[in-house]
Amino acid sequence: MKIVVTGALGHIGSQLIRSLPETFPGAEIIMLDNLSTQRFCSLFNLPAQGRYRFREADILTADLEELFAGALTVVHLAAITNAEGSFDIQEKVEQTNFIGTERVARACASVGAPLLFLSTTSVYGTQAAVVDEQCAPHELKPQSPYAESKLRAEQLLAQVGQEQRLRFIICRFGTIFGASVGMRFHTAVNKFIWQACMGIPLTVWTSALDQQRPYLDLSDAVRAIEFIIGNDLFDGNIYNVLTINATVRQVIDTVREFIPDARVKLVDHRIMNQLSYAVACEKFRSLGFTFKGDLHKRVAESIDILRGACSW
After folding, report:
1. What pLDDT does residue 242 have?
2. Which CATH number fits domain 2-177+216-242: 3.40.50.300, 3.20.10.10, 3.40.50.150, 3.40.50.720?
3. If DSSP states are collapsed to H, E and C, what string results for the chain?
4. What is the pLDDT of residue 273?
5. pLDDT for res 144
6. pLDDT of the residue at 136
7. What are 120's strand-pairing partners?
8. How much is the pLDDT for 312?
9. What fold, for 188-212+245-310?
10. What are the tens digits of pLDDT across the range 173-225?
11. Quick one: average pLDDT of 244-252?
């Protein structure tokens, strides 16, 4: 059994590769990463029972058919995920997130490997209070080049599925929270934790305090991926995957339970005009998956990890 993970050293990938050996004993885990973010530490102290093989490879240039041949599945995590930063590197985002995904998808189709593609709930930008996978096209209003690239990649997979009989599944993940070896701090929950621990004001977009957004516990994210692989759920469908819908104020209040003096600074930003909405994930739950994540617990764990750095 062979499982390939692209972007294996990132926030989700670094946790996934540590969990896979327990869920799929004996599986060969092929870890692909171009090391553009230099997260070498994600390779440290991997579980002894894992059968790992790392390849420094870029999805834009590597021989993907060779790497994917014989795979039980390819978990495609490689992407540029910084929505705020994507405005300044739109061409790079297009290359990595869209062209890169096309290369991954066509290579999977060529060798007969099922593809698990991670998209994002950021593709929504709706006036509806609650949105699900069956929403009308006009409710898909990505507000950043990052989200636009993910939506276009979704549409591409449907095309490759028809043209080359690719077996795939698309998961629109909520914003990840929770600590991992390869984590970064550019998305809402983790960014607030970092800022609070460092004594920096928590930067919040003007008028966004009570806007609701979907969030996904990292442990739920990993379990969802393993659930899909274990149940061979490559049905060509799109699924929202999230632990909780919460407002920015609720997230900040959770951080303040542990760091009471955390301050907030309101800032203007070009993607701050999204409206508040919640995302439904009953479709994924109906497959038999149970979400077990806990925002309070994950915030506490992340703060504990950083506490030593700010104790002086």
Report:
1. 98
2. 3.40.50.720
3. CEEEEECCCCHHHHHHHHHHHHHCCCCEEEEEECCCCCCHHHHCCCCCCCEEEEEECCCCCCCHHHHHCCCCEEEECCCCCCCHHHHHHHHHHHHHHHHHHHHHHHHHHHHCCCEEEEEEHHHCCCCCCEECCCCCHHHCCCCCHHHHHHHHHHHHHHHHHHHHCCCEEEEEECEEECCCCCCCCCCHHHHHHHHHHCCCCEEEECCCCCCEEEEEEHHHHHHHHHHHHHCCCCCCCEEEECCEEEEHHHHHHHHHCCCCCCCEEEECCCCCCCCCCEECCHHHHCCCCCCCCCHHHHHHHHHHHHHHHHCC
4. 47
5. 85
6. 85
7. 173
8. 44
9. UDP-galactose 4-epimerase; domain 1 (3.90.25)
10. 999 999 999 998 888 899 999 999 999 999 887 777 888 999 999 999 999 99
11. 95
Q: Which two tokens stand for residue 86?
A: 């994507």
Q: What is the dihedral of CA 212, 214, 216, 220, to 10 degrees?
A: 120
Place of tokens 């869209």: 98
Please, is 301 exposed, middle or buried when counting C-beta atoms within 10 Å of its C-beta (0-12, 13-18, 19+)? Answer: middle
What is the predicted pLDDT for the residue at 280? 96
Confidence of residue 141 (pLDDT cuts 50, 70, 90): confident
What does the block give as tokens for 59?
């999805």
Residue type, 261: D
pLDDT of residue 28: 98
Domain positions in the chain are: 2-177+216-242, 188-212+245-310
Residues 6+ apart with CB under 8 A from 165: 109
